[in-house]
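Worked Example 4.2. Consider the chain below.
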Amino acid sequence: MASPGGGTHGVPPLHFVIVAIPLLLAAVFATQLPTIMAGQTVLWGVDWIPSLGIRLALYLDGLSLLFALMITGTGTLVLLYSGSYMAGDPNFWRFHMFLVAFMLSMLGVVLADDLITLFVFWELTSITSYLLIGFNHESTVSRRNALQALLVTGSGGLALLGGLVLMGVVVGDWQLSVVLTQGEFLREHPFYLGILILILLGAFTKSAQFPFHFWLPNAMAAPTPVSAYLHSATMVKAGVYLLARMHPALAGTPEWSWTLTIAGAITAVWASMMAVRQTDLKQALAHTTLMALGTLVMFLGSNTEAAITAAMTFLLVHALYKCALFLVVGIIDHETGTREVDRLGGLNKAMPWTAAAALAAGFAMAGFPPFLGFIGKELAYEAAVAVAVMPWFVTAAAVAANALMVVVAGLVAIKPFFGPLSRNLPQPKPHEAPWRMIAGPALLATMGLLFGLAPAGIGSGLLEPAVAGVLARPVPVSLSLWHGINVPLILSLITFGLGIVLFLGVVRLRNGLNALVAVLPNGDNSYDKTLVGLKSLAWWQTRVLQNGSLPVYLLTTFGVLGVAVGGTMLFKGGFTIPQNVLTPALHEWGLVVLIMIAVLVTVTAKSRLAAICSLGVIGVGVALLFLIFGAADVAMTQLMVETLLVIIVTVIFLKLPRVENVPPLTRRRGIVNAVISIGSGVVISALVLAVVAGDMNRYLSDFFERTAYPGGHGQNIVNVILVDFRAVDTLGEIVVVAMAGLAAFALIRSRRKNVGGE
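Applying the procedure from the previous section yields the following structure tokens:
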């Protein structure tokens, strides 16, 4: 049987080495359970950029441990599964390298205890997920959807960086565990709203919350193991993790509660509706992931213990059933050649183990007892009734979304396996998949059942520390399968009944939803239109500002400089004159007069040679001014540059062909040139005077004076700065100059060869 990876070969034996990586990590994290359950935390870190107070620091508490176990646990099963799924693919090892890199990046996000470390790993998840989504790089759809995911999440990442930097500056510390203790101070700070908006942009784009929900279903262009991993426990939940982690610092305000509640509810209900109308099983599951993310965000908007307990429980529930169902869909596609639900049926006899795993995971997804999904749904309803912001709205959204999840569970877990065997399959003789592919969904589905039958241990051992990590205080968590006859149970019965009715009429429901979608705005189309608009803007900007004309470049650069700097100084009162201005000596006045005469000659010269020579006189005059005021090294550099410039440009001008009929400079162009030149000169002069008039901050001067000799072993401070403190910058400049010189040399030799050949 050919795998989607493109071959029929066996799994390489070394594949078990890759599977062992997340398995060993999961074992290491599991050994920390007693420590975390005791209310302690684990810290580790090394100095990264000591001068800025930035450390490569890791922090393990109940919240990060829950995510770490989900990432490594599901990662083990997904890697085991992908060995058979990708068997025979020529890029087998590249795929697994990308997947492991993504896993380690996600672990870095949930374990980071430094704001900058968090951002670095955050962006690494975007880059590695781009590589995974676009793994089938020969496909136009894969490349397009991978780029879409990268642009959306990357843009949110830039906003997140701004929020994290603001947060670190406000608190005065970059250590995340310290920042989280300053919640009251942050919420009362004038920058709170700005920090909140930037953090939410980062979280909402990563977890595909409305209005950034459109990119996540398109990520299904990735191979099925990637989809299972991204959607169950990793990338798309990074935003949820960020909101949970920042809860002690930013939650508890109306801005936080209303934004998360409304965005989460809209995302959950809309995604549930879109899931029902899908006929591709992967697309249906992708939209149910959106529903789950919206539900989690909605509950994280609350500050109550019930809401956070429900969120953490549903987080675990979703990881178990969603990973299992994605892997099941991969098996169905692997064995039948299709994921279209309308073409599937009767697979239970040919694939009994897969059918059993699908049923168990589907019942957990629908929230039927005795699965952990039922407990999670009961807690969700209990929390929905108790939230402070619009409890009726939250409850109605939760019931509607869960009822539609019952429909999707039936489409994914029941429809393909029961009923008459479909005779319209691309691969008409399906059979059970290899054990590597069955093990993952079977184990995950079994865990959902066992945790539902015996939830007390998982509640106190894993979820209780996670809830405490979100709320920053101890919270008892007691899970049980039966809570008696109460409001959550009644809402569950309503959900089951409504879901079954909708499942029986799924064709009509799907038609109605298709008609609704046809008249509503489409986020994916809006993204395409935005890209087209950006390209049009770039084309216009390039045509106007980068048209190949050096005079236009100079006018634009100095015009923007004059307006931006001059306008800022004007409106901010920056034009100041020093009180104690030194009276120039006679020889200094002589240099100034010489420079002014050279300027007049330069701008009025009819000959290019005369203009460049007079321009050189200006440079020499400036060099003499440097020399008079004691900057001998700068004067020497200026003099050498001016001398070489005059010689080289003169030689070039002598070699240039004579250009006949050069149009004279128009009066209008001359006036524009004069205004921008004089304006730029006035602004620069005013800026220098303002700097001289102000109090000089000698922090950097004192630092270099103090450390130049002991740190750089040199008495010339300028040279020490260039060679030691700015060594990389200086090396870059040298490389650029060397490359330019080599390029010019190559062009000259090429021209000589062409001339000789002629």
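Residues 1-9 have pLDDT under 50 and may be disordered. The CA atoms of residues 33 and 706 lie 50 Å apart. Compare this with Example 4.1 before moving on.
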